[in-house]
Every structure is written in C-alpha cells, then in structure tokens.
Amino acid sequence: MNDLDVLESESIYIFREAFNRLDKIAMLWSIGKDSNVMLWLARKAFFGHVPFPVLHVDTNYKIPEMIEFRDRVAKEWSLPLIVGQNTEALAAGMSPAQGRVNCCSALKTEGLKALLAEHGFTGVIAGIRRDEEGTRAKERVFSPRNETNEWDFKDQPPEFWGQFKTDFAPGTHLRIHPLLAWTELDVWRYIAREGIPVVDLYFAKNGRRYRSLGCAPCTGSISSTASTVEEIIEELETTKTSERAGRAQDKESEDAFERLRAAGYM
C-alpha cells in the first residue's frame, strides 16, 4: 500500500464507523474538491451509493458554475441531495455588505443549523482538513458539538492510535471528518489517481484559477497557469501561498474563522 491507499482506507473506515455508531447522519457537500473526494470515498465505502442524505447549504451567492456542477453530479450519481437556505435572512437583505463574517454566520452557520434541526440529524460528515487552516487543526475526527451546534475547541476528546470516541451524552451533536489527516496535495493526487470530477473553476483560464471555492463575493482567484490536475499538483509542490489566501472572510479579523467555527460553521 502507498500513502494514498492508507488515507483512503482510513477514511472509508471512518465513514463506516460513523454509519454504524450514529443514529441519523448526513454529509455536507460544499461542491469543492474536498467534498467531491469525500463523496467518492463514501461511494467506495458503501459499494457505489451514498446511504445517507447529502446536504448543501445554498447561500444564494455561490458561483454559478458550482450550482451547475452540483445539479449535474447529483443526477448522475443519484445522490439523496437536500438543499437548505436561510430564506429569512436573505429576505431581510443579508449580504457581504453587512460584514463578511456576519453574512457567513447568517447564511452558512444558521442555514446549516436550521437544516440539521429540521431533519433531526445527530451527526454530519464534513470534508475539512487540518492543514487547511489553523482552527481546523484543532479538530478531531469525531468532534462533539453542544445542543446548539457550538464547538468548544478548548475541550476536545483525545484520539490516539486510530481509536475514536463515539459515545457521548444525549443531545450531543457530532461532526465527523474523514479527510482530517489529508493535505491539499493528497486531495489533488487522489483526484488524479481516481479521475474524480471537479468544478472547472479550479483550472486556469487567462492566467487565473480558483484554489478554494466559496461564495462569489468572498472568493478570489489566484495567478496560475495550471490548467490540468497534473499541473495543479506540480504548482502545489512549490507554492508558498496559503490555500485560503483568496477567502475574504478570513481577513476581517485575526480570529474571524475561529469565531465562525466555534458558533457552528462548517
């Protein structure tokens, strides 16, 4: 087995453990590269299909190509897709003009909380990685939240030698992170090996491409000539720019992203 085989095996084990241990779970799908890899792994773990709902929180500000990709892949892979949206906040005029962190909190965090409460999910699988951002480095594979989905990053259960705590007090909501040990380079190498489809926005056009995808007003492109998966891998092997350098909400304050995640952000 090579390193990708080991990562794949561990992620599939986490999927199956979560499905076996938790009563009612779902999986987040942001339409980005990480969640597309996660979908691929879920289909491998359960022999070609996804046996739990796939959730997408639509902020109404996603880049149009992302929504087109979502609808096409959901149909092709017969995904049990549920789309949620904080229509009340949108009707009240919520937008990045009210502050990017405020907007993320209302349209993503509160939108997700409402979706989880509506369907009674006790756990949700998310495609975060430790190397992506400092706050996410504090996460666990099985990460508890309180009754309102808030995360106490100062009080996390230990996880040693692949042993995960899955028994928690009633009312505890869990976030499960099968890709936590993966790196950005691992993700792209796995995409190349498996032929996993991704949104075309990742590939350079006219000297620009997206390295991380989110809402259109808050996501910037980077200078790049990488127009294939192989060229992206080559670029990442030498880059000194952080993956989320183009995400505007991370720059509003030093602890902006940590506050978002503590409140229940994905």
Structural features, described:
Helix content is 36%, strand content 10%. The protein contains 8 helices and 8 strands, in the order αβαβαβααβββαββαα. The strands form 2 sheets. A 6-stranded mixed β-sheet has the order 3-2-1-4-6-5, sandwiched between helices. Strands 7-8 form a two-stranded antiparallel sheet. The protein is globular and about 55 Å long. It catalyses: sulfate + ATP + H(+) = adenosine 5'-phosphosulfate + diphosphate. Keywords: ATP-binding, Nucleotide-binding, Nucleotidyltransferase, Transferase.
Based on the model shown, name its key terms:
8 helices; Rossmann fold; 8 strands; ATP binding; EC 2.7.7.4; 266 residues; two-stranded antiparallel ribbon; globular; 36% helix; alpha/beta; ATP-binding; 2 domains; six-stranded mixed β-sheet; Rossmann-like_a/b/a_fold
Q: What's the arrangement of strands in the largest beta sheet?
A: 3-2-1-4-6-5
The total count of helices amounts to 8
**Overall pLDDT confidence:** 88
Report the principal-axis shape: globular
Please compute the radius of gyration using only Cα atoms: 18 Å
Largest sheet: 6 strands, mixed
CATH superfamily of the largest domain: HUPs
Architecture (CATH level 2) name of the largest domain? 3-Layer(aba) Sandwich
